[in-house]
Write a structure and sequence with these properties.
The complex is a heterodimer of chains A (about 110) and B (about 110). Chain A has about 110 residues and is mainly beta. Chain A has strands spanning about 5, 10-15, 20-25, 30-35, 45-50, 55, 65-70, 75-80, 90-95, 105, 110-114. Chain B is built from no helices and twelve strands. In chain B, strand 8 (about 65-70) and strand 9 (about 75-80) form a beta hairpin. Classes of the chains: A mainly beta (about 110), B mainly beta (about 110).
């Protein structure tokens, strides 16, 4: 069964450094998402991406964040200058097309900012 | 604001006990409702979903949920839990007015004692 994959599984970085989190969505899916979960808190929506552009973003998704689908298979989340409060589990998800389709989640990347 | 609340943060049950986890969502028009499960060390997986039709939906592993529109609720039930049901359970909603982003509740940790 096709799966969403994410790399790395764990990323440790220093405050102020740039990080890129990578995701490979399921191949025939058209909608892509990033969510995050700070330890002990709820899963929060960051951004949705469709047709090579951002379709919606949350308040969390400020100028420090960007997303890209550089080659038709990868979907990346970049944080330009990480802060301590960016430490969280970041989940990528994708869904086929219809609004009623299920979103499939990757295993997550645990980002630790020191 | 669009939001989801789960009433139980941590539930401890013995095997064979019945389970009901509460979930309420805020009004925001037409909704699609989901329950996801996250087993220890694994990624979020869909348990069941409701889009339309019969308000009682059945999912995997013997779980079911009932959509009660008048109460804005979508409670998850299982008649007899097993030790393997130990996991974190997330209720989530998409509203027809948005891009399919999932709005999550804070999650319920279920611990089943053998």
């Amino acid at each position: 069964e096709p799966e969403v994959t994410q790399t790395p599984s764990h990323q440790v970085t220093q405050m102020g450094q740039e990080v890129i989190l990578r995701c490979v969505p399921i191949s025939n899916h058209l909608y892509f998402y990033w969510y995050r979960q700070i330890l002990g808190q709820k899963v929060e929506f960051l951004v949705s991406f469709y047709n090579n552009e951002i379709s919606e973003k949350s308040e969390i998704f400020d100028d420090q964040f960007s997303v890209e689908r550089p080659d038709g298979s990868n979907f990346t989340l970049k944080i330009r200058s990480t802060k301590l409060e960016d430490s969280a589990m970041y989940f990528c998800a994708s869904r086929p097309q219809a609004h009623t389709d299920t979103q499939y989640f990757g295993p997550g990347t645990r980002l630790t900012v020191l | 604001a669009q939001s989801v609340s789960q009433h139980n943060h941590h539930v401890i049950l013995s095997e064979a006990a019945s389970l009901e986890l509460g979930c309420n969502y805020s009004y925001g028009g037409t909704v699609n409702l989901f329950w996801y499960v996250q087993y220890p060390g694994q990624h979020l997986q869909l348990l069941l979903k409701y889009f339309s039709g019969d308000p009682l939906v059945k999912g995997i592993k013997g779980f079911e949920a009932e959509f009660i529109k008048s109460k804005f609720s979508f409670n998850l039930r299982k008649p007899s839990v097993q030790w393997s049901d130990t996991a974190e359970y997330f209720c989530a909603v998409t509203y027809s007015s948005n891009t399919g982003k999932l709005i999550f509740g804070q999650g319920t940790t279920l611990q089943v004692k053998p």
